[in-house]
Amino acid sequence: MKIGTLLPSATEIVCALGLEKNLVGISHECDFPRSVSNLPYLTSSSIGKHKNSEDIHQSVEALLKKSLSIYDLDFELLKSLKPNYLITQDLCDVCAVSFSQVKDACRKVMGADTKIISLRPQRLSDIWEDVRRVAEELKVMVAYEKFKKDVDDRINYISSKVKENSSIKRSVLTIEWYAPVMIGGLWLPEMIEIAGGNYLYATPGERALTVTREKLNEINPDVVIIKPCGFKLDQTMKELETLNRNIPLENWKAYQNSDIFIVDGNAYFNRPGPRMIDSLEILSYCIHPKIFPEFLEKYGPALVKLSPGLEVI
């Protein structure tokens, strides 16, 4: 069995199910687990490398306005590898190769021998269901059952600890992008609720909401979690000036009380795959650090806490 994956979450799902040895090609953004790094890339980006978030946003907007694809598929490589399964997504053309491109590739160079598995998670339960569908298709349901039990146990642990401290409820704003400012949607509101918080400017199952600085002045969150999609921690830390310019941090309780967190958005929260349970644990710590101190020890390198003045604590 030969498997090709066209987005990082798909690669992580395949590996979590014990099928890393069956991977023959991955997307250019796949970087976890590190052992997949030598596999050939089936995709490339049309955006190129940019220095900051504003450049990236402008490039994406320009490509979409011209009805051009943000990502390219290597048709010749696909033809030579001939995967039995190609795992992609049908949720966001900004996040990965469009579904129409994948269908076109199968029709032109691979034919009926390659089966497309498309992921389209919008809620937290959809993520676990996608893992189950992949496991069922690839005939590794035992591995899925083990994975799901671990997920359920970890969610139950968080829920029980939150229930024990139910009197503590904090308002939470998660920022997906900051040039312009976008608020985390889809599965994030549900995760905030599980972790014992009240979500702001978000609706479960709906896409990220773009908001203005003026609109942000109308709220006063207890906790702010900044996790730009696709940005590693060091990339976000280089853009604190842009972040501060677009977001009225200094007006919020979260700023005054040093409850602003920057998290590795490339690894967590924005990849709807196995590490979403890790993301929930990170979220739980950020909302309730006194209740979940063990998660700081576990994920410390993936997050930064800022003091007033945006200094690292």
Low-confidence stretches: 63-68
The fraction of residues in strands falls at 15-25%
Number of strands: 14
> Which homologous superfamily in CATH is the superfamily of the largest domain?
Nitrogenase molybdenum iron protein domain
* Gyration radius, rounded: 20 Å
Tally of individual helices: 13
Largest sheet: 8 strands, mixed
Secondary structure: helix percent: 25-40%
Q: Which class do the helix and strand fractions yield?
A: alpha/beta
Overall morphology = globular
The quaternary state of the protein chains shown equals single chain
Q: CATH top level of the largest domain?
A: Alpha Beta
Question: What does this protein structure show overall?
Answer:
It is a single chain. The protein has 313 residues and is of the alpha/beta class. Helices cover 40% and strands 18% of the residues. It has helices at 8-16, 53-65, 75-81, 99-110, 124-137, 141-164, 188-194, 213-216, 233-237, 240-246, 253-256, 276-287, 293-299, and strands at residues 3-5, 23-25, 43-45, 71-73, 85-89, 115-119, 170-178, 181-183, 197-199, 209-211, 223-226, 260-263, 303-307, 311-312. The strands form three sheets. Strands 7, 8, 9, 10, 11, 12, 13 and 14 form an eight-stranded mixed β-sheet that branches. It has a four-stranded parallel β-sheet with strand order 2-1-5-6, with helices on both faces. Helix 4 (99-110) links the parallel strand 5 (85-89) and strand 6. Helix 5 runs antiparallel to helix 6 (141-164), helix 6 runs parallel beside helix 12 (276-287) and helix 12 (276-287) crosses helix 13 (293-299). 42% of the residues are buried.
